[in-house]
Each structure stands twice: as structure tokens, then as C-alpha cells.
Amino acid sequence: MLSLGSGGGKSTKPSFVSYVTPEDMKIKEKEEGLRSKHPYLLPGEVVFCSANHVLKYTQEDVSQRGVYGTLLCTNFKIAFISDESASQETAPPFRNKLLSENDIPLTCVDNIYGVSDEKKKLIIGGQVKSKYPSKLIIQCKDLRVFHFSLTYAKEEEAKKIFQGIVHHSLEPKSLKCVFAFSYCETASPSQASRKSSLTLMFETKEDWSVELGRTKGNCKVSSANEDYVISEKLPQFFVVPFAVSDDDILRFLGKGIPFWCWSHHSGCALFKMACLPTIQEDGISQKYMHRMLDAVTQDQLCPVKIEDLSSCLPALQDLQLSYNKFKQLFLIDSTTEFWVSDMKWFSSLENSGWLEIIRQCLMKAVEIVDYLESAHTSVLIVEEHCSDLCCVLSSLVQIMLDPYYRTRSGFQSLIQKEWVAGGHSFLDRCNHLYQKEKEVPAPVFLLFLECVWQLLQQHAPAFQFSETYLTVLSDSINIPLFSTFLFNSQHHRDTAIKPGHPEAQRSPLNFPSVWDWSLQFDCKAQSLFTNPLYVEKPIQDKALRKTSHQKHQRQLSLPNTLSKPSPRKGFFKEETDNLKKIFLGKRISKWLNPTESSKELYESWQRKPLDYQGLLLPYLDGPSVRVWMQRYLRWVPEAQIFGGGSITTVNRVLELASEIQDLQKEVERRSCRMNSSTAWTQVYSGPPLSARLSSFPFTATHAWSFKPAIPSSIRQSLGSVSSLADKEDDDCQGSGVL
Amino acid sequence: MTMLGEFGFRLKTQTMASASTPTYNSNNLENNSSKNASRESLRMEPLADVPQLPGEERITDKDIIYICPFNGAVKGKVSITNYRLFFKSFEVDPAMTLDVPLGVISRIEKMGGASSRGENSYGLDITCKDMRNLRFALKQEGHSRRDIFELLFRYAFPLSHSLQLFAFLSQEKFSENGWNVYSAILEYRRQGLPNNKWRITFVNEQYELCDTYPTVLMVPFKATDEDLRKVSAFRSRNRIPVVSWIHPVNQAVIMRCSQPLVGMSGKRNKDDERYLDTIREANGQTAKLTIYDARPNVNAVANKATGGGYEGEDAYQNAELVFLDIHNIHVMRESLKKLKDIVYPQVEETHWLSSLESTHWLEHIKLVLAGAIQVADKLSSGNSVVVHCSDGWDRTAQLTSLSMLMLDSYYRTMTGFQVLVQKEWISFGHKFSSRIGHGDKNHADADRSPIFVQFIDCVWQMTKQFPTAFEFNELFLMTILDNLYSCRFGTFLYNCESVRDNMEVKEKTVSLWSMINSENGKYINPFYTKESSRVLYPVASMRHLELWVSYYIRWNPRIRQQQQNPVEQRYMEMLALRDQYLKKLEELQISDSPRIANNSNSPASPTQLVHHVQTPL
């Protein structure tokens, strides 16, 4: 053990305590010969630059502990390889096959700070000069924070690695530079595993027909955009009301077309629509809109309600701003910072506004559910391009109404349908290419996952997938490998994967889909994606699956007596007028209080025992909307409950589930009915309960020196409560001792 | 309809009834003697579904309007007994009932006058100690509220009217006797005491050393009774340092006491100094005795003015003093009041989080937990500690009992927790009577404070962070809190043991633990996994602390709906499923080979199942 100064020379800060000093290391190197540390590289991955003797450290209280190693930058990731021999303990239980513990995909880098002379400065791509900071703090989009010290690295190497990291992770690049392209050129084409999965990709006419048939939708699949002849934003196939002709679709290049999302058993349905271009002759667009609405209402058989999202939900910029504030609360540099920020925790959360945005989205979704479920009114969600909040809302509505989307394959299909086929600009919103002047980056998809998480934590038995699944999915957005999240539309993807030169005689690149989970996790780890609390559908339905029986399940969510004569029957002039105004750019904000408007829905829903295969509504009062602890607090050591957390109960449920399976098997064996095949899901067995952290399965389990977290700097917090604080507990009534 | 919360009211509809089948999670206080009650009440005019305990007597009935903050005005009939206020709506579908033990009532006010205008403006406004207010409206003609107001006032505050608390009138009988749960000697023996370093003293047998301490005390072997008397002169209200708990391995101890009487002049007391050093030396590895003063530093200093203070560095050279910054009873009282403002009747909507923060309630919880964590951590590392505040019966009790809960898994069992409460709170003189104000009309008494509620909240926070570590469930904690006020049991009555002896509480009242232990199945946490030597360190950070919604906001029907824990519910279903399989398997075994039948266990009963699960699979 040796203390080393921290670069700056005059530093008075506590110094690093490391297991190995550079001097020791040199000796070690000589001893072990030229055993260079080879990073684990994926097919197509190349190392750009690397630096030895980099110190990775964590800041605990006053002492800083660190490990020496090599910092590399490849075309895929920033990696740190420790000089210490590979972890003596068993490999982390929940390992991503693509990434090790200290790997940061380039697209996962959120912010980099340079520390020179104890000053922390945000590094901005393109402004890097030859000087390099002595310490690097890398904040990741999955909320990890890495601290590296370059003080002991060779100057040349340090400079190179710094510039390399900044260049490759913070500067604009072209799509072809994204790692997926190199990967797919090299990797053997992935086995067509997506075929075997139950996820509908919505790339073919058949998928849409299946979905239409499943929900008994009264619409048609349109091929008008086959080969993207009309619009590059739209998928090749989509579903529209029967009355919408190919000419209608062509008219405004797909804008102003009601796209079908989902049909309610009552016959009403959910549609979405992009706004018409504003500069249109009034008469034409008005007449056109009338026709489109008539198409939706099936010539006024079914009433329709129009929901213009721009008037009631925050703009994308607000989303981004709010999330930036919110995530900052979890990117914690040191223990001191943790406890200082703890004092104003609730108000900081509130000030970020992120939970409020989640609440608003859920509220809006409930409103739409209310129209479909209680009033049997079709709903048309309108948004400028119908590919952002529109996707959030339409997906949420479907999850609340249709238990199919709460299964894993259903959920994945939903994301394919509403987000991928729906043309959500993943690439622009995630800003993977760092092209500043282009579209607004905004965590729209993450917002959706957040909303789903709220539903999941409130109604766990309704979901087949677990919280861990959602967290891993949110992480996968930042791994630049999956076609799911890399493009702005299906057309964008189809052109990107085409071979550069037609004469190259090469088939299109076969990008993996994120749903190909085996690429990231082995079976054992994937078992953590399954929610052991899930209440499956009654067994008799299993045999009859794929038939219309699913429909019957859904319709039991509310008593049918509720189909009172709707006050909204038919669509009114008022609605069209309203719509007209919207399309003319004059937006009317009619801010209904959603809690009021859907009160009846809640009341009738609450009066019945909760059916996890039926309608699901979120609780939206203050205490019910929470922080997604697993995602946001998993890397914060101070926030870990040693041997505790809700994971402990989930684990008990898992154990019991496996015991039940054993019994079931035994019963079957004894009753000689070996023929029935029970699904033999592997039950995850990790370290004993007491040795786990509440962030399981995320935080590495090794080398966790446990010390209870004792809040520091709490003294100031209650500074001036009131004069009461100075009062004595018991107003002394002259006790004997005084 | 035993499912209906005794203290709650509830919209009773057919669907509700079917919705409430799971019995383990409804926040009710149930008495298994209600059947007996109905038999006894035959003497009186039959009153359909008014619950009645043995010994409970009806005082009056009256037609009244209940102004429900959630559903508006409801017409019905109110019955007052010497134990409760019971309201039942005339409307049957949905019927509404309200069942409030009179002990819960803190204040009764008349609202409106005979000439008040407006509908339902004339009546009664009742403030309760359990986070709710009740409003009743009456007809304005003929001073209709006078009788009911006077009767209610009389029976809600019996001690202010020379009446007896209901606990002394109750005739309830239970199969278990809760007064036998705790014996100081047996509890010390469980800890391995006395030993060659620590001895039991009976110097306080007649409460002559300290009238707020129990009779049995554990003190250093080296200290004579004479020493103890000398030390007691230097400790506020003679509450000398005594052992609360000893670490089974490193023999470090938690001592509790009151502040030293240092005063403005900075008095010293050689006996006290020597006594503390004896404590330090006892386990042989404590270099410095850590004294945790629960108060904020400034308050400890201010206490010097009234003769109190803290252990100075000069006088106690082998000790280090740590202030834990926990505020006094007045601050806590106001904090809970603020909390009530934002959750009752309506839950603050738009600025929920910042409103919650501004009550400081969770911040106080955090400080108390953080203090207890420090005590537990110190002890785990082999150092003995002394804990005190001013008098050593509020914050001190919180700190010692919580750190003991962290350190000793015994206290996390059903019985162990009862022992903990009996020992650290009841026997060591937490002033329940003054803090709660049982049967007393002085609602504004400055001595009242929710210190025990705060402690139970801290325990609840721990059960949330360690859901498998506690044998009892949330209902158990809520039942304790409900009976903290109800005056149905003798458990929480009076300020200290000497008074309880005088009042013959054990002889004349029933213990809360009698009821709980007679039907403890419903208070069991199905997830409980026994892990004997594990120290629990909760994370005392706002990131993990949460408002105990199902207690503080339980009167709000909309919130209550959400409180059925789906994980627990599902787990119970799975337990039942396993039970089925076990049964089936057994049947098969019997039919397969009759000779195995003798060996196989009988079908596991639900409680057996719970135990069975504890064994690692």
C-alpha cells in the first residue's frame, strides 16, 4: 500500500490507496513477460487506442480506492481492463455477454467531465485541445459513473486515449460508423431466431392481419406504401379504416390518415394520425378531414373522440429538460454528495418534473381508456408526426386494456407495432450520432418504459415480465447493435442495411433485433426476465389459443351495463370544428382535469375484485407514482440495502414456485401421467439471500465491503424548525433532582 | 362481516365483500369475542350489528348525519357505548359504518350555533389521535346536540370525569395471557446475564432509587448498590445507566440513562465518572466508551440552564460524546400535525413530494434510524455505548429499541418484539399516559407527542427494507398503534411501572398481547425467514424512506383500495397451491404403498406451512 499524490502537485485532497503501485506493476509485467491484457472483442470490433497505468477509482467518503489497468477505446466501447488477475470470485451472476462490468458502449456515454487542478469541467466534443485532464469522470446513460485517473499513464498514451474517447463518444459521426455495421459485416448471420420467437415484427402484411384478426378489428391492411412509394416515414404495411382509399393516403403523403392501432371488443378502436401540413386551403383540408373522420366512425356508426396531444402533454424539449434534471439526481460522485442531496431529495425529485410527466402520460392514457371502455367511443390520437408521445399513449392504452400486451411476447410485439413500425425516430431521439442541429433528442421511449414500470410495480401479478426485464430493455437502447433502436423508420433501416454497391453481390446486413435476448444473456440470466408473480390466464384457454377466445377474456373487464347511451354518440360538429382549428394551427387547450373525468371509470373498476387479466388502471395520487429504484439506484453504493429490498420477497416467491414445480412433477410422476409436459423454467439460484444487495441482479457482488451507511451532514438539515426545537421535553414541574 | 375494520368505515357493497376475501391484509382490529358480546347484549334492546365487547355498555343512541369527507353527508344512527362510537347509515346499499373507540378521540368541539345557517352547519367536530376528523350534523331544533355532546365528552375523557378507563371495565377473555410475555429476569437470562461482569440489582425493588424505572436492573458487577445511589443523584430523575442489551459475542453493552446534572456551573461527579469507566472496562475491548446523546448539540447545551447537560470531555476522558441531532417531542408533534394536514381528508395533489418534505416527518424518521444504526454499528465492532437524551424515556427508548432490533433477530419475532416493547418502552417508563393522554380532555397538553408512533414507523421502514426479516406483518404494527389509543387493553396505560403496580393494571386489565397471541396467525409475515445472527442495517436515506401510506392515509377509501399487497397475496395463493400438491402427493403415496403412510406428515396447516418454508430448499 502506498499513497500517491493526485497529479495536481499542490493537492491537499486525500490520496489514492491502491492495491498495486505502478512500480509493483512494472515488476509484475517483467515477471509475467509480455502477457498483455487482451480485451474481449466482438466480431468486427477494433481497438482504436489504449493507455496503461490508468487508475479506476471510487470515491468513498474521504478515502479513494482504486485499481490500475488499461483503458481502451474501440469502435464499440470504452473498456477498462484491470491489471489484477481476473476476478477470483465467481463471475458476476447476471452478465451481459456483450459487455463486461467496466465496459461502456460509445453510445452509452452521456457526459464526460475532465478534472484538472481539482476543477471539474464538462468536456464538449470538438473542443478538445492537446491538453488532457488528470482525471476523467464518465457518466453513462445507464447511470453508471466511472472515475479514471490518467496521472500515472504515459503522457502520449493518456493524450491519445483522452482524445480518442472524446472523439468517438462525443462528436458527430455518420450512421455507418455505428458499431452494428462493423459487427454485422463480420459476425456470422445470426440464426433466424426471431422466427421462432412469438414476437410479431409488423414488417409483413401477415403480421398486421394476425393482429387485426386477434382484436377483431373492422379495418383493412393497406399495401399502398409497399416499397415506400408514398412515404419514407410510414411502414410498408399498415391498417386503416375500410373507407380510406389509396388515393387518400397519397393525398398528403400519409399525413391526416387515421392509422389503426387496436380494436376494443365493443367495436370501437384506437387510431392515431399525423397532423396535416398547416398550409392548406381551408376547404380542401376540411372536406378531407370530414372524409377521414367518417371513415373512422364507419359512417357515423361509432362515435369518435379526438385527442390532440400537443395541447395537453409537455413538448419534447420539456421532456428532455426534465429528464436531464431527474437523472442528475442519480449521477452521484461521492458519498458526501449522496448525503447532501438526500436532504432535499423529495423537492429535487419534484423540481425535476419527471414524475409529473409520467403521471400526466398515465392520466391521459386513462382518459383514452375511459372513452374506449366505458363510452365505447373510438379515439383518434393526433400528434404532429404521430411518432412520439403518440406512441407512448397508444402503447399504454393497449397495455391497460389488453392482457396480451402484458406478456413478454405481446409487449415486444406492441413495441414493434407502435414504435418500430410506427416510425418512432429512435436514432434522432437517442441522439446516437451526436448531430446537434438535427432533431430534438428526447427520452420518449424511456418515458414509455417508466410508465409501464409504474403499472408493473402497482400491479405486479398482471405482467409476465419483470422489472429487471424493463431495466435491461432500457439499457439496450444504448447498445449500438440492435436494429430496433438504431433507425428513424423502417425505410431508414431498409436503406441502411442495403449493400453499399449493388455489384457487391452481398445480401443485406442482418442486424440483430433486441428481442434476440440470447445475444446478450444466457438462459439462466434470462430467467430473471420472468415475473414469478404473474398470474397466468386460466388453463382452459391455453388449449384454445389463437382462436377468438382471447377476445372474451378482455371484454369482462367492466360490466357491460355501463354501455349507457353515450352522450358522445356520433361525432359532432364541435369535434370537427375543433379538429379544423387544430389543423389550422390554432390550438385550443381544453384542459380537463383527467382525474375528475375518469372518476367514474375508477370507481366502477375499484368496485370489482382486481382481475389481472382484465382492465388495469394506474393509481396516480402522489404517493403512488414512484422512482424506478432498480434502474436509477442500482449503481449507487450508498443506496444499497445489504440483504434486503423487495428482491428478497421476489426471491422467496421464486423458491416457492420451484418447489411447487417439483411437487407438480412428483405428483405427475406418481400418478403415471408423464406425458404432460410442464414448462421447466430454470429457477435462478444466486448467492444466499443475506449476501445480496437490494440492487440485485445489477451490482457486482464481489468485494463488497459492507459498512452501514451513516448519513453525514444531517446537522444543517433541520436548522430552523421553530422555537419548539429549543423547548425542553418536559416542562419542568420542579422535579426532585433540580 | 368480521372483515370490516373495527376502526374503519367502509362502503359495504356486495362486490366489496367479495373483494375483501384475503384476510391477512385488511387493516382491521378484530375481536374474537364479538360472538360472546352479542349473547350478553340480549339483555338490552337488540341492536343489529353494533359490535360489543364483553363489559361494554350502551350509553345512548341518536339519529345523526355523518359528514363524510369522501362521500358527503350520510344519514344514520350513532351509538355511544363506554368503549366506542358506532355509526351506521340508514342507507343499506351501500351501507356505511364507522367504528371508533372513544380512546382515539382527542378533542370534541361544537360547530355552528342554533342560529347557524346552511345545511349541516350545526353539530359536532371530533378530532382523533389517529389522523382523522369526524363531523356530525344534527337538527338545530331543541338543542339536539347537548345530550350527545355531554355524554360523548364524559365517556371519551373518563379520567377528566372521575370515571374508569374501559380497560378496567372490559370482561374480555383470551386463551393467552399477554402479561406473561415479558419477565425482566428471563429476558436478561436469554441474553446470558447476569455473568461475572454484570449483576442484577434489586435496589429499586420498591421504586426507591428511581420511580420511573422497573424493579429489576442490570448493572456492572463492580458497582455496589451504594454506588448506584450516588450515581442516581447525578442523573436526571435518578435514571442511572443500566444495561439494555449485551452482545452475545463481543460482550459490548447498550446502556441507557438520562442526562447528567451538569448545570451551568459544570458540576462533576466522581461516582458517575467512575461508574461509566466501569462500564467501559467490562468487555475488555472498549477503548473509549461512546456516549450517544440523542439531542442536537445546541439543545444539550441549553439544558445546562435547567440543571442538565452532557458529559464533558474533561470529566469523562475515556468517553467520546456523539450528538445524534434528534429533535424533541414538541417538534415531532408539530411534524405529525403537518403531515395530517397534507393527507387528511384529501391527499395533497400537485406538490405531494415537496409538501411531504416540508412536514419533515420522514426526516425525523431518518435521524432516529441513523442514530440507531450508529449505535448498532458501534456495538457490532465491540464497543460499549451509553445512550441518553434529556430524561431518557423518549428518544433514548427509540434508539435503544431500534438498535436492538437491528442487532438481535429475537426481537424481530412476534414474541421478541412484544418483549422489546414491554422492556424498553413500558418498563423503562416511556410516559405513555402523558404522551397519548389516555382518557384526558386536555387535547392541547404540551406533553403529548407521537414518539411511540414514530418508533413504530421506524420499525415499519425496517420491515419495508427487509421484508423477510420480521416474523410479524404490517397488521401487527397497525394493531399495536390502534390499541395505543383505544384504552381497551392495559398495556399502554400509565407512565411507569410504579404507577401501574399501584393501579393493579396486570390484575385488572387485559394485555394487548393476550389478544394478539390468541390469534397470531393473522399477524404473521408469510415471507419471514429466520436468520439468527444477522445484523440489519437499514439505509437511512430519503431514497428508501417512504410514507407509511397504509397507516397514515388509510381513511381515504381510494388509497386504501391500493393497499392490498399483490406480492403477498400471490404468495399466499402459491402457498395454498403447494398445500394442494402436498395433499395430493400424500394421497398418492397412501394409495401407492400403504406402508409409507405412517411416515408422511399430515397435511400441513397454514401455520405449519409457513414454518416449513423457512427451511432452505
Automatic annotation (TrEMBL), chain A:
It comes from Huso huso. Residues 202-632 form the Myotubularin phosphatase domain. Belongs to the protein-tyrosine phosphatase family. Non-receptor class myotubularin subfamily. This is Myotubularin-related protein 12. PANTHER family: MYOTUBULARIN-RELATED, MYOTUBULARIN-RELATED PROTEIN 12. The keyword Cytoplasm applies. It comes from the Eukaryota. It is found in: Cytoplasm, Myofibril, Sarcomere; Sarcoplasmic reticulum. Keywords: Cytoplasm, Sarcoplasmic reticulum. InterPro entries: MTMR12-like_C, Myotubularin, Myotubularin-like_Pase_dom, PH-like_dom_sf, Prot-tyrosine_phosphatase-like. Pfam families: 3-PAP, Myotub-related. The keyword Cytoplasm applies.
From TrEMBL, chain B:
Residues 25-36 have a biased composition (Low complexity). SMART domains: GRAM, PTPc_motif. Residues 359-405 form the Tyrosine specific protein phosphatases domain. It is a peripheral membrane protein. InterPro entries: GRAM, Myotubularin, Myotubularin-like_Pase_dom, PH-like_dom_sf, Prot-tyrosine_phosphatase-like, Tyr_Pase_AS, Tyr_Pase_cat, Tyr_Pase_dom. Pfam families: GRAM, Myotub-related. Keywords: Cell membrane, Cell projection, Cytoplasm, Endosome, Hydrolase, Lipid metabolism, Membrane, Protein phosphatase. Residues 178-552 form the Myotubularin phosphatase domain. Residues 19-47, 594-617 are annotated as: Disordered. It catalyses: a 1,2-diacyl-sn-glycero-3-phospho-(1D-myo-inositol-3-phosphate) + H2O = a 1,2-diacyl-sn-glycero-3-phospho-(1D-myo-inositol) + phosphate; a 1,2-diacyl-sn-glycero-3-phospho-(1D-myo-inositol-3,5-bisphosphate) + H2O = a 1,2-diacyl-sn-glycero-3-phospho-(1D-myo-inositol-5-phosphate) + phosphate; 1,2-dioctanoyl-sn-glycero-3-phospho-(1-D-myo-inositol-3-phosphate) + H2O = 1,2-dioctanoyl-sn-glycero-3-phospho-(1D-myo-inositol) + phosphate; 1,2-dihexadecanoyl-sn-glycero-3-phospho-(1D-myo-inositol-3,5-bisphosphate) + H2O = 1,2-dihexadecanoyl-sn-glycero-3-phospho-(1D-myo-inositol-5-phosphate) + phosphate. It is an enzyme of class 3 (hydrolase). It comes from the Eukaryota. Gene3D superfamilies: Pleckstrin-homology domain (PH domain)/Phosphotyrosine-binding domain (PTB). Its main location: membrane. Its EC number is 3.1.3.95. Residues 594-608 have a biased composition (Polar residues). It is found in: Cell membrane; Cell projection, Filopodium; Cell projection, Ruffle; Cytoplasm, Myofibril, Sarcomere. Belongs to the protein-tyrosine phosphatase family. Non-receptor class myotubularin subfamily. This is Myotubularin. The lineage of its organism: Eukaryota, Metazoa, Chordata, Craniata, Vertebrata.
